[in-house]
Amino acid sequence: MMAVAVTEEDALWSAVADPTRRRVLDALLEQGEASTTALAHGLPVTRQAVAKHLAVLNGVGLIAGRRRGREVRYTVRPERLDDAAEAMARVAAQWDRRLARIKRLAEAAQAEARIDSKHRQGERNE
Fold first, then answer.
1. Long-range interactions of 76-79: CB distance < 8 A, separation 24+
2. Topology of the domain covering 8-77
3. Does the reported pTM lie above 0.90?
4. What pLDDT is stored for residue 74 in this prediction?
């Protein structure tokens, strides 16, 4: 089996693709900072599941953890969130261009079909 290189952007997309991770990010944005336990209280998953999601988000740099006594408090890294938003905007722009091309091709095919249809009707009327 061939190994596939995962780019930083792919890892970022993978991290934010999970709805629970997005909820964790939302909770951190709302609270400013929180521990794993505090986040788990507001989510329908276990503390262990939240810890795993935090590890993924931390791995792509979207959050940072800071030890305070016995617990780790997590915060969102706004600069990395901005990077993520820019990456998503680039992909959205690429899809907009692709969809515009598909629309032009579909419209051209539809126009050609109308011309062919009129041509066939003209042949029948002769």
1. 76/25, 76/28, 76/29
2. Arc Repressor Mutant, subunit A (1.10.10)
3. no
4. 97
